[in-house]
Amino acid sequence: MNQVLLDKIESKQFRKDAADFSVGDSVRVHTKVVEGDKERIQIFSGVVIGRRGHGLNEMFTVRRISYGEGVERVFPLHSPRVEKVEVERKGSVRRAKLTYLRKRLGKGATLVKEREGRGAAETGPAAVQQ
Questions:
Q1: Taking the model in full, what pTM does it have?
Q2: Is residue 128, in this structure, part of any structural domain at all?
């Protein structure tokens, strides 16, 4: 099939409100759950430990600790079942995949260093000494 034709078909299925988050961010994913004839929104919150794919096939993995057990869930980014992705906290990481969080327990499993803004860096103790 022609690539131009495929791109045209895929462009209609892309998410209009592009979620701006990256690996290491704490997010709340609102998903639509269908139970019988009823539909409701379920929230899954945790740390984004990886993103993969590109275009319409892009996926992201969210991990959280639930009752002492690690739970990971993979979401398609452009799925109509994913209502929205809220960023609770920006994280600062140096890896593309945070699989090392799987070995950690307790607070260490969810702790990702918070990203500092430009304003906070300029008003810190180092800026006062200069």
A1: 0.79
A2: no
